[in-house]
Each structure stands twice: as structure tokens, then as C-alpha cells.
Description:
With 149 residues, this protein is mainly beta. It has a single domain, classed as Jelly Rolls, CATH 2.60.120.10. The protein is built from one helix and twelve strands. It has one helix at residues 15-32, and strands at 37-40, 47-51, 58-62, 65-71, 73-78, 81-85, 90-93, 97-105, 112-119, 132-134, 136-137, 147-148. The protein has a seven-stranded antiparallel β-sheet. The longest helix is centred in the first third of the chain and has 18 residues, at 15-32. It is globular. 23% of the residues are buried.
Amino acid sequence: MVSRAKREVGTDVSSSTVAKMRAELARKIALHTRKAGEHATAIPGLTLYRRTECTPCYPATYEPSLNVFVQGRKRVTLGGTTYVCDESTFLLSSLDLPVVSQIIAASEDVPLLSMLPWSGRLLPNRSCRPAMVHCTRVASQSEKRPWIF
């Protein structure tokens, strides 16, 4: 697993390098998602998302998946704990998770951009994998670490 600013081998990655890589990824996703919504790609299992407005809270079930947030912010409440997912976070789940979700930062000029590069539907045996949310817990904005369920 790659942490936010350091690779597993301990090599520092400058924040400007990470910011440039994130901006390039956002640019590429934006090129493939000119309209708001869900966009399938030619790569099996890879879905791109573009949302251009904030939403009210809505109940949902997150299927087993990995969701990488590239731009914008989304609030996800799971089991009474609220997380804010943004460009420095990802959400990984191996279980069907009942959540309440809300897009809290998205516009036409700066849309929420995310990618779903992995879906548990592609894996035959997912029952033994833990669910993990790697977002900022609202109660502790400065603390960023994986949350395992």
C-alpha cells in the first residue's frame, strides 16, 4: 500500500510531485467524462465518475470495490461514523456496506472526479477480505489513516 506522502520503501515523494500527478489524473478523467454521471471505459472493471453539483444525503449500499477520489469531496456515513473523502483518500470495501452518502464539493468548474478501478464483482471469493475506509473522519480532520471494519 502506498501512503499519502511516502512509499512503502521509505522514499519521500514531494508534495509538489504528488500534486502534479493528481492534477494530471484529474485532467485525464475530465477528458473522458465530459458530462456528469457514470462512464464505463474500455478497460474491464474501470468506471469513471463526474459529478457537477452537491447532493442531499441519500442512503446507498457500497458494493465491494475500490473508489479513488481525484477531485471534489464526498461525505460518507457508515455505522454512525462520518468520513470526508477527497483527493487524498480512497475507499476500499470487500463487503456490501450500508452508508449514507452526500457530495459536498462539486461544481461545473471543479467537478467531483473519481474512479472505480476495481469491483468485487470481478473476484470470486471476497468473503474473507476486510472492509476499509481511508477517508478523513469528520470528528478528527487532521487524522488520516485507514479505518478497518
